[in-house]
């Protein structure tokens, strides 16, 4: 009788342990799915920002090239455009670093 009680207690404790482990696994999977969704969302956002900045860099580069071709000795708009282009490149570099951190 005592042996049956000990065996029943052992099996019950194993059953409780398995239920607890299953619950922890399910919680972990839910949290991992939420983190992945957050990561994917942020990654998509940064990719969109990088594309936008890349487009701006291309536009500024084209404008800079045009301005250099058209510039005279009296005006120096190319320096302003070059400064803006460098600012955009710096922003792009920062976004690329953030994107690399997310990978």
Helical stretch count?
2
For the record, give the distance between the C-alpha atoms at the N and C termini, rounded to a whole number. 60 Å
**How much beta, percentage-wise?**
under 5%
E-strand count:
0
Q: What is the number of domains?
A: 1
- The helix fraction, in percent, is over 70%
Secondary-structure-derived class? mainly alpha
- Uncertain segments of ≥5 residues (pLDDT<50)? none
| Major sheet description | none
Mean pLDDT: 85
Can you characterise this structure?
It is a single chain. This protein is mostly helical and 103 residues long. The protein contains 2 helices and no strands. It has one domain (2-102). It has helices spanning 2-70, 77-102. Helix 1 packs antiparallel against helix 2 (77-102). The longest helix is centred in the middle third of the chain and has 69 residues, at 2-70. The protein is rod-shaped and about 100 Å long. The protein starts with a helix and ends with a helix. The mean pLDDT is 85.
Quick structural overview:
The protein has 103 residues and is mainly α. The chain is 92% helix and 0% strand.
Structure keywords:
103 residues; mainly alpha; 2 helices; 92% helix; rod-shaped
Q: How are the elements arranged and paired?
A:
Elements: H1 2-70, H2 77-102
């Amino acid at each position: 009788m005592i042996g049956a009680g000990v065996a029943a207690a052992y099996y019950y404790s194993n059953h409780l342990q398995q239920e607890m482990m299953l619950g922890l696994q399910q919680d972990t999977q839910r949290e991992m799915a939420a983190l992945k969704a957050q990561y994917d969302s942020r990654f998509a956002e940064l990719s969109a920002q990088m594309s936008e900045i890349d487009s701006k860099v291309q536009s500024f580069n084209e404008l800079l090239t045009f301005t250099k071709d058209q510039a005279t000795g009296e005006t120096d708009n190319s320096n302003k455009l070059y400064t803006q282009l460098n600012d955009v490149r710096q922003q792009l570099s920062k976004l690329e670093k953030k994107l690399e951190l997310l990978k």
